[in-house]
Design goal:
Elements: E1 4-5, H1 16-22, H2 38-58, E2 65-68, H3 71-82, E3 111-116, H4 121-132, E4 136-140, H5 150-156, E5 174-179, H6 193-203, E6 206-210, H7 222-225, E7 229-233, E8 244-248, H8 274-312, E9 316-318, E10 329-334, H9 339-349, E11 351-352, H10 368-372, H11 377-381, E12 383-387, H12 394-414, H13 416-425
Parallel strand pairs: 1-11, 3-4, 3-5, 5-6, 6-7
Antiparallel strand pairs: 2-8, 7-8, 9-10, 10-12
The structure holds pyridoxal-5'-phosphate.
């Protein structure tokens, strides 16, 4: 059976060149990168080369890259590493104690995070866990394309300052972290990070971005974006699953999450996954060289798919299509169908796509991203995401353009509610 994969936002295959680079580190070059002997030093050399390759892709310095197990760990490290609910603000200096109210009782309830409603669960659930410890979190809404207004972020910032004339024992919340994703996994929508970075810098607040869906697809430069922390994941850019990285701008005060040896300067102890790290490095190098060309080719195919579906399937429309998007993603509503049923019908015909984030597949709730952009639950349930990859071909798109309209028509034929509505509109 012809099988076409259009679910590259869920995961990508390991690029053959990446696999070739990794293979020696499972056998001949099996040294521990923390060992002093020659095999260990060869592994260390490979890890440091990979650090340079990842740094080059995002415009950072190699020493600002910490290898992790993937996007989820990077997001958690950034958030829990900056916002420690158990640590209070510094006590006032002894000579200032008359001027300021005593702060000894001030703990988590005066810390504040700003994020958006369409983040991945790795960010949302980390923020919700901190909320349980008393941290305040603002989940800003987004527009119909999934974009946040940078001015809404500015307005949400809390300074923690109170009027010194009003003596109050209640500390006001202070924004400690702004965490806004770069590209959305379901829509591809790219957030205006440069503007947000400027706002965060002016207010002197740490700024983290989950760039898992943008790195390797669009240019990412940590200096231009003015981020302090950035998460990326190997398996979204043709490296293996279980490897990722966190960019930590030099000077960022980040608490470690794991305790152990002195690996990666204590930031992330644990014997390094040398083969995975080498794979991520190689994938980053390939992405840096092929990004522009890939983006042009893939976006032309994505546009062909999108236009083709819109013209072949009545009552279909694009979700979030008017904002800047990653070149490989399109998300469409096919009114009157159940996305899960369509997904299964397409899978039986050999086409793999998604109803939303892969991590939430199996959940019956409609996608939180689609409801956040204003879709009714039934419209969200009638939506499908197609995400293309570096190796998607024109014939893959032709195949999708044949099977999707046929499957939608078939499901609609079986749907009594759709048939009734269609008749009413005639
Ligand atoms: N953030 C985003 C935007 C994602 O799309 C994903 C995975 O789908 C993650 C984080 C989690 O990354 P990982 O699978 O490497 O843990």
């Amino acid at each position: 059976m012809n099988r076409v994969y259009l679910d590259f936002n869920a995961t990508t295959p390991v690029e053959p060149e990446v696999l070739d680079a990794m293979l020696p580190y499972f056998s001949a070059e099996f040294g521990n990168a923390a060992s002093i002997h020659t095999p260990g030093q060869r592994a260390r050399g490979a890890v440091e080369t990979a650090r340079e390759q990842v740094a080059a892709l995002i415009g950072s310095r190699p020493q600002e890259i910490v290898f992790t197990s993937g996007g989820t760990e990077s997001d958690n490290h950034a958030i829990f590493g900056v916002v420690n609910p158990l640590v209070s603000a510094p006590f006032p200096k002894p000579d200032k104690q008359d001027e300021f109210p005593p702060q000894r009782h001030v703990l988590s309830h005066h810390k504040h995070i700003i994020t958006i409603a369409v983040e991945h669960e790795a960010v949302l659930n980390a923020c919700q866990a901190l909320e349980k410890d008393g941290v305040q979190v603002t989940y800003l809404s987004v527009d119909r394309d999934g974009r946040v207004d940078p001015e809404a972020i500015r307005r949400a910032i809390q300074t923690g300052r109170s009027d010194p004339k009003i003596f109050s024992r209640t500390a006001l919340p202070q924004t400690t972290l702004i965490t806004i994703m770069h590209a959305n996994n379901e829509l591809g929508t790219v957030q205006p990070l440069e503007q947000i970075g400027r706002i965060a810098k002016e207010a002197d607040i740490y700024f983290h971005t989950d760039a898992v869906q943008s790195v390797g697809k669009i240019p990412v430069d940590v200096k231009a974006l003015q981020v302090d922390l950035l998460s990326l994941s190997g398996h979204k850019l043709y490296a293996p699953k279980g490897i990722g990285a966190l960019y930590v701008r030099g000077g960022t005060r980040l608490r470690q999450l794991l305790y152990g040896g002195h690996h990666q300067r204590g930031f992330r102890p644990g014997t390094e996954n040398v083969a995975g790290i080498v794979g991520l490095g190689k994938a980053a190098e390939i992405a840096r060289k092929s990004l522009t060309e890939d983006a042009q080719r893939v976006s032309a195919l994505r546009d062909k798919l999108q236009q083709g579906l819109l013209s072949r399937v009545p009552q279909s429309r694009v979700n979030g299509g008017d904002a800047p998007r990653t070149p490989n993603t399109t998300n469409l509503v096919f009114s009157g169908i159940e996305g899960e049923a369509l997904l299964i019908a397409l899978d039986l015909k050999g086409l793999a796509c998604s109803t939303g984030a892969a991590c939430s597949s199996g959940a019956v709730e409609p996608s939180h991203v689609l409801t956040a952009i204003g879709l009714q639950p039934e419209e969200a349930r009638a939506s499908l995401r197609f995400s293309l990859g570096r190796h998607t071909t024109p014939s893959d798109i032709d195949f999708a353009l044949t099977v999707v309209p046929a499957a939608v028509a078939q499901l609609r034929e079986l749907s009594p509610t759709y048939r009734k509505e269609a008749t009413a509109h005639k």
